[in-house]
């Protein structure tokens, strides 16, 4: 009878010993910083160690603001928390406690602490959240926008919206020459802290041989976030000749023709004046109204 009892005692104490031996103070391992992207969800994860056999009762996530009251943003396992955008939980399989921030804003950036309460004691650890925002695809345009001629001065603009932190814009011509030093980029800060970038590139004498330019938006990390190309809209030289030969000659004929007709009809018009009195505005330009220019007649 003594043997089984002894064995039982041994098993119990072995169990107890093994529990105690792995039962160092529970600790939390958090990343020093987690990266969130504006508008997306982000999950900050902290590992509970030692991993196996620990039961987490509670995980309390707080926001730490210098000079402000520390407030709980989310509490797992108890009531509390500041808003529906913050959720927290405990992942048993990976032994991680987490804080999820839905649709991250720049204002969420900062320091957080996590306090875990387990069946083997509690631990607290700080971590931070960094938020970046991607710029919109850039748009590029020129002033003047059309009918550009050789040796004209043209200003090009490139705009990218809603990024963070402040980025920059680089300019290249169609041969890949870097013109950034000759350009200027301004940033406007939105209410939510994001930046809108507008870059200006003034070319003193453009050439129809090299009408292609591009602007590249560079994010905070020095990497490109988007690119836009523009082909300056030069006036087509053939069209210019045609316009002269067709439109201008036609215009001259029309003007000369209406003048001649007007002069010829002048005596007639003066006799018909009483019938036209309904048309108040037309009285001053009666001569032209009776001419062949149809547009003038519509004002009556
Ligand atoms: C273009 O010039 C800018 C300003 O000098 C520089 O910061 C950038 O690295 C250059 N880009 C390339 C691709 O050479």
TrEMBL record:
It is found in: Cell membrane. Residues 1-22 form the signal peptide. InterPro entries: Ig-like_dom, Ig-like_dom_sf, Ig-like_fold, Ig_sub, Ig_V-set, T-cell_Activation_Regulation. SUPFAM superfamilies: Immunoglobulin. The chain crosses the membrane at residues 249-269. It is a single-pass type I membrane protein. Residues 279-300 are annotated as: Disordered. This is Ig-like domain-containing protein. It comes from Conger conger (Conger eel).
């Amino acid at each position: 009878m003594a043997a089984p009892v002894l064995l039982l005692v041994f098993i119990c104490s072995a169990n107890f010993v093994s529990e105690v031996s792995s039962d160092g103070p529970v600790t939390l391992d958090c990343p020093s910083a987690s990266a969130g992207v504006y508008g997306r969800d982000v999950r900050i994860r902290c590992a509970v160690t030692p991993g196996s056999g620990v039961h987490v009762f509670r995980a309390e996530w707080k926001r730490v603001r210098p000079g402000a009251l520390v407030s709980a943003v989310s509490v797992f396992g108890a009531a509390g928390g500041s808003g529906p955008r913050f959720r927290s939980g405990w992942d048993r399989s990976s032994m991680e406690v987490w804080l999820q921030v839905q649709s991250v804003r720049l204002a969420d950036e900062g320091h957080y602490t996590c306090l875990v309460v387990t069946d083997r004691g509690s631990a607290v650890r700080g971590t931070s959240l960094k938020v970046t925002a991607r710029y919109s695809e850039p748009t590029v345009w020129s002033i003047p926008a059309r009918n550009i001629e050789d040796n004209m001065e043209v200003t090009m603009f490139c705009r990218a919206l809603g990024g963070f932190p402040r980025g920059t814009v680089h300019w290249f011509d169609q041969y890949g020459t870097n013109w950034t030093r000759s350009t200027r980029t301004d940033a406007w800060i939105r209410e939510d802290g994001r930046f809108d970038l507008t870059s200006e590139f003034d070319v003193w004498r453009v050439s129809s041989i090299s009408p292609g330019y591009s602007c590249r938006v560079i994010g905070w990390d020095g990497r490109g976030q988007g690119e836009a190309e523009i082909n300056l809209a030069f006036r087509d030289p053939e069209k210019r000749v045609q316009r002269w030969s067709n439109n201008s000659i036609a215009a001259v004929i029309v003007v000369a023709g209406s003048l001649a007709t007007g002069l010829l009809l002048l005596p007639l018009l003066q006799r018909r004046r009483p019938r036209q009195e309904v048309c108040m505005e037309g009285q001053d330009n009666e001569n032209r109204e009776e001419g062949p220019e149809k547009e003038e007649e519509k004002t009556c």
